[in-house]
Write a structure and sequence with these properties.
Strand order of the largest sheet: 9-8-10-7-11
Shape: globular
CATH class of the largest domain: Alpha Beta
Structural class: alpha/beta
Strand content: 15-25%
Order of helices and strands: EEHHEHEHEHHEEHHEHHEHEHEEHHHH
Distance between the termini: 37 Å
Largest sheet: 5 strands, mixed
Length: about 325
């Protein structure tokens, strides 16, 4: 089970998705403390018939996406918007189920494995169609069109070193892995579906594996203390430090495409939401998301500013 948690400007799936009990948190008034009334009806917007509550998880990328949704809905509709962001992943989904939030950006892999408890599948179209169909039937929640980027596990190297060694895929990495040092957090080395799976599928056998805090991996790579690290495909540190993501040519890592999801009752009351948010469909690729994350995490720009500038540049505002 994978989760994204912001730590030192990076994202981690280090904790089990249900490591923090969503039920206990909600009962304890976490969302109420953020301004959402406890006991809201799951059949309609918790904030009123003309108000939409947008949720978001607790890392930079999610805040940027939530701000984009807010800006577009405010610009293209007469709806009022309230924000409930920086929530734990499990809390976000439970808030959606209980009607405390109306929409947020979810990831296809999270929907498949963590919410539906289905087995891992590496085909992006199959995963999307599965979550779209099953969420509609089981939870009365609609998956809109994917935004375009896939925030999944990725192996990264210094661009100059990758070019020098002729390593552009994980297969090519595996062939030379006996001479290379991997920098990784303990989660990636211990999970059965990450490094052990890569060793099995690709035949990697690194000269050494240096485990470290997730916030130190990129600096270790930049300082040439390690040769390759595991990261996430939309990390802002990738373009900022001239790093290369190696192609997962055997499709080991599951797809985590970002998609706005909306409760059906809200779409029924406000069908124009779908029309508005579908304008983002396929517009944001991995590279663009990397750059936006970098602006916030490394340049310390406000997520709202980054979101607004991107939407303005692409004539969506």
């Amino acid at each position: 089970m994978w989760q994204r948690v912001r730590k030192s400007g990076l994202k981690s799936r280090k904790k089990s998705w249900f490591a923090i009990s969503a039920t206990a948190l909600l009962a304890g008034g976490v969302l109420a403390g953020c301004g959402v009334q406890a006991g809201a009806s799951p059949t309609g917007s918790s904030a009123g018939n003309n108000t939409i509550v947008i949720g978001g998880k607790n890392f930079t990328e999610q805040q940027i996406m939530a701000d984009m949704l807010e800006l577009m809905i405010k610009h293209d509709t007469n709806l009022h918007v309230k924000m409930q962001t920086w929530l734990d992943s499990a809390v976000t989904w439970n808030a959606m189920q209980t009607g405390r939030i109306d929409l947020y950006v979810e990831y296809t892999g999270t929907g498949l494995v963590n919410i539906l408890h289905d087995k891992v599948n590496t085909n992006p179209q199959t995963v999307y169609h599965t979550v779209k169909q099953q969420f509609q039937q089981k939870y009365h929640v609609t998956w809109l069109k994917p935004l375009g980027f896939n925030d999944t596990y990725a192996m990264a190297m210094r661009q100059s070193e990758a070019n020098r060694l002729g390593i552009h895929t994980i297969s090519q990495l595996a062939a030379q892995s006996g001479n290379l040092i991997l920098g990784s957090d303990t989660d990636f080395t211990s999970r059965s579906d990450t490094l052990p799976a890569m060793n099995r599928v690709y035949g990697t056998h690194f000269k050494a594996v240096d485990t470290m805090d997730i916030g130190l991996k990129y600096q270790a790579l930049i300082d040439k203390k390690v040769d390759v690290i595991d990261g996430f495909s939309t990390d802002g540190q990738i373009p900022a430090n001239h790093l290369t993501i190696l192609k997962d040519n055997k499709h080991l890592f599951p797809p985590y495409y970002a998609v706005p999801i909306v409760r059906d009752s809200v779409l029924k009351a406000h069908p124009n939401i779908k029309t508005v948010l579908d304008k983002l469909a396929g517009k944001i690729d991995d590279t663009q998301m990397q750059k936006m994350n970098a602006l916030v995490d490394l340049k310390h720009e406000r997520p709202m500013t980054v979101a607004k500038n991107w939407l303005t540049k692409h004539r969506l505002l």
